[in-house]
Every structure is written in structure tokens, then in C-alpha cells.
Amino acid sequence: MTDQPGGLVPPGALPGPLRIRPRALALAGSGARLRFERCNPYGLLVESGLQPYLRTMQPPKPPFVPTLDLDAITSFKPFKLDTTLIDSLVEIGRAVVQLQANFAKIGRPLLEGFAKTFENAAKADAVQAAGWIPHPTTPMARFDKDTPPDEIGAILAAHYRDNWPEVRAAMSRSVQSTAIDAEAKATFEEALAAHEAGFYRSVVRVLFPEIERIARETVYGGSRKESWGRKKGKNNAGLSDLREALMKKLPAGVALGTPFALTLVQKLSEHLYSYVPEDPAQLAAFERDPVPNRHASQHGYVTYSSAQHSINMLAMADFMFNVIMRANAYIDAHAKSPEEAQQADPDGGPDATTDA
Fold it and tell me: What confidence tier does 232 reach under pLDDT thresholds 50, 70, 90?
């Protein structure tokens, strides 16, 4: 296998025999740890040598396995000068039958897989519209995307109250399974204990700084500064580079390997680290949102004192720890020197609003 244009991803990189040609991904940041190379349309993370980097992250796992045998379909030559038209048409017919057989195998699972994916995304959006962060502990089976927000809210409030021991155990297992350090894992356990004791304010105020620390010590390489975006050189408490990388720079598979990633990445980008202005009307909008905002929390602009605030913070921290470590693994595998990164993207890129 050679690293050349048009090379094929090794068969083991995809489920089943389906193989695809990689495409270049223009990703570059001026920091040494934000320089990326290529992936393929399935979101698989592929190194420059076309060997899949799947050690600590996996692409989304749909509930189906492609079995379309492209080699068998494309190996025939339908029209030949030395064969009759009838013989050529027979070969075409055989290929069409093979094609139909293969699509019969994957068609229904494929459509069912897509339907399930979109159903889950729609339900996740409904959960968010009701003021909650979707999480694997969310009882999705108890409502649908058209259930009124206040009804979803009541279902979730009762669920997290009545099933807290199971919820706590599931959240703990999720975070403990990540590659974050022992300090962060201990901090999350203390946050779970604080929620159980009813110390909801403490959950929000302890987890935001821990998310910031983990990001700083991994994807930022220990630096306290943004390294390449519009906030270059400024304090990186708002995780500006990371947020933009997840939206525009990193392969989709980095984030999409986490549950409800589309909804949560959007919430991360649009709300979690947004700047809270002094204007009373704009401040009131943050006060109405049950998902904590870092700027509002750490500077005391909004009080987050309810069980709902606390559950949302725990769920979002679980997501953040997972996605930060997945991003860090990819960045480590594709790190370039600062000079190479700067040459690739000397001006940096646009940045969403954030706080210092």
C-alpha cells in the first residue's frame, strides 16, 4: 500500500468489502497541535500513509454492515468486439442481478439505520428544546420528537430524580472510561457526589474549570493561549480554537463518535462559552436557558442552583471530556511543527464569540 493519489483505504478500514478513495481535507492551524491532514467521506481518520488511525477513536457505528461487492460488479466488461451483443447483454444481466441482490441485503438495514439516526437527532433536539442536555441516560423511549417540551421536561425531571443511582453509575462509567487524567476523574466523582447531596451550584462551578484544565493540558499542549484563530495570543479559557476545530477543522468522526454529537457540538459552539453581555435583555436570555454558560457561571452573572442545571452540567462535562480526548488523540497523530502549520495557514481563521 503506497501513499499516492487515488490509493485505496485498506479493506480492514471499513466494515465489509466496501472500499473508497480518500479525499484531501484542508485543515491547518498555526499552532503545533492544530494541523491535520486527511480523512475519507465516512469520517474515518486516516494518516498520511493511508493507515487508519483508529486506536482511541472510532467512526460512528450505524446499525448495519455494508455488503455491496463493488469489485464483483465492476469486474465485467459488458461490450466486447469479439462477443455477440446477446452474450454481452447476458453479462450485463448477471451484473444487474448481483447488484439487486446486494442492494436487497443492505437496502433495508441502510434505510433503517439512517431513519434511526435522524430519529435520535430529532429527539435530541426535542430534549434540548425542553431545556435539557441529551445524554445516554436520557430515557428517549418515553417520548417522541413531537412531544410537547413541558411534557418532556417533566419526564426527564422525574427520571433523573427517581433513577439517580443508575444515572450516577452510568455517568461515572462513561467518564472513567475516557483517557482524562486521575485528577479530572476524581473531580467528576466529587461533582456527582455534590449533585446527590443537593449542592447543585457546586457542580457547575467545579466542572467548568476542570474542562478548561483538561483542554489546556491536552489539545493546547499546556499553553494558556489560543494559538491560531482570531483570538490568537489571548487566554484560551473559552476554548476558541478547540470549538472552531470541532466545527470546521477536525474530521467529523472525531465528534460524531460521541452520542448526540450534532446537537451537543452546536450547543457548545453557540452557547456554552458565549460571552454574556451587560444588556439586560440579552442577560435575561442566558438566565432562561437551563444549560449553564461558563462566562455567566464563573463570573457570577447567572445563578445555576437547580437539579436541572446540575444534571445538564454533568451531561455536558461527560461529552466534553470524551470529545476533548478524541480530538487530542487525532491531533497527536497528525501534529506538525509550528513552522509547517504557520506556513499552511498564516492568517488563522474566524472565531465565534467567547469570553476571556
Answer: confident
pLDDT in tens, 9-50: 333 333 333 332 222 222 333 333 333 333 333 333 333 333
**What pTM was computed for the model?**
0.65
Distance CA 39, CA 46 (A): 5
Cell numbers given for 327: 480530538
What SS3 class is residue 45?
Answer: strand
Cα(36)–Cα(336) distance, integer angstroms: 8
Residues 6+ apart with CB under 8 A from 102: 67, 68, 69, 73
Domains in the chain: boundaries: 1-356
Using CA atoms, how far apart are residues 274 and 352, in angstroms rounded to an integer?
8
Distance CA 36, CA 49 (A): 13
Question: What residue type is assigned to position 50 of the chain?
Answer: L
Report CA torsion sign: 229, 235, 241, 243: negative
